[in-house]
């Protein structure tokens, strides 16, 4: 599903964000990528969604070589990969329903298809009774659920979650992780980027540890070891 071959990414003047990284994530896996801030975790996410291009190596996503992906192809890639960030990136003047629908509208989907898909994803995240509220009228945990619903509208094969619990308390954080596990059980490959030790240790899933742009650990049933 995801294959990185000897990828390196450099930033001026002399920063090595990623240094000869090799990684293979299989379809249906749930993988945590852990490490301290500035170690290269988010750079991997940006590489997988075409936001950054590597300086060396090859990047394969779903059998597609995106190493030198063009700007016109990036929207197609991002319909195959759902992305969740620490900040929810919701539109404050739109209802929850409108926020999720917007992700389909910008791709030119018909009203019929939007009206079919959006209620389904809102039900998955448990917010089917709050679709007409605005972001400021719900909790941070619920806002992150809306962001997850939005990421699911294209039925992505891969879900990248970059510090999705960073702005949440422990109870809401656990609920978001449970939701990611539920989505994973549907067959979606989930890549969780986090520095939350407790969450990683409770998951008992595969853990990839990055330090200074290098993979220093890859445990099939892992713990946060830094």
TrEMBL record:
Keyword Nucleotide-binding: yes
Sequence ranges assigned to domain ABC transporter in this UniProt record: 2-225
Keyword Nucleotide-binding set for record: yes
Organism of derivation: Candidatus Falkowbacteria bacterium CG1_02_37_44
InterPro entries given in the database record: AAA+_ATPase, ABC_transporter-like_ATP-bd, ABC_transporter-like_CS, ABC_transpr_LolD-like, MacB-like_ATP-bd, P-loop_NTPase
One Pfam family hit: ABC_tran
Family per record: Belongs to the ABC transporter superfamily.
Domain of life of the source: Bacteria
GO (cellular component) term, any one: plasma membrane
PROSITE patterns associated with the record: ABC_TRANSPORTER_1 (PS00211), ABC_TRANSPORTER_2 (PS50893)
Protein name: Cell division ATP-binding protein FtsE
PANTHER family to which the protein is assigned, alphabetical: CELL DIVISION ATP-BINDING PROTEIN FTSE, IMPORT ATP-BINDING PROTEIN
UniProt keyword terms in alphabetical order: ATP-binding, Cell cycle, Cell division, Nucleotide-binding, Transport
BP terms from Gene Ontology: cell division
A single MF term (Gene Ontology): ATP binding
């Amino acid at each position: 599903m995801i294959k990185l071959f000897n990828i390196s990414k450099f930033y001026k003047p002399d920063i090595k964000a990623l240094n000869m990284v090799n990684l293979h994530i299989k379809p249906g896996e749930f993988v945590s990528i852990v490490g301290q801030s500035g170690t290269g975790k988010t750079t991997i996410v940006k590489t997988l969604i075409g936001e950054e291009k590597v300086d060396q190596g090859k990047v394969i996503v779903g059998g597609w070589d995106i190493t030198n992906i063009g700007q016109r192809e990036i929207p197609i890639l991002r319909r195959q990969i759902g992305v969740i960030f620490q900040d929810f990136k919701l539109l404050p003047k739109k209802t929850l329903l409108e926020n999720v629908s917007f992700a389909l509208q910008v791709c030119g989907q018909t009203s019929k298809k939007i009206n079919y898909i959006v209620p389904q994803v809102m039900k998955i995240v448990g917010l089917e009774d709050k679709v007409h509220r605005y972001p400021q009228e719900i909790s941070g945990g619920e806002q992150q659920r809306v962001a997850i619903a939005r990421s699911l509208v294209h039925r992505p094969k891969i879900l990248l979650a970059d510090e999705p619990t960073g702005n949440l308390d422990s109870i809401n954080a656990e609920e978001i992780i449970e939701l990611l596990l539920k989505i994973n059980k549907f067959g979606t490959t989930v890549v969780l980027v986090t520095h939350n030790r407790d969450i990683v240790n409770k998951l008992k899933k595969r853990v990839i540890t990055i330090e200074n742009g290098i993979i220093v650990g890859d445990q099939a049933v892992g713990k946060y070891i830094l």
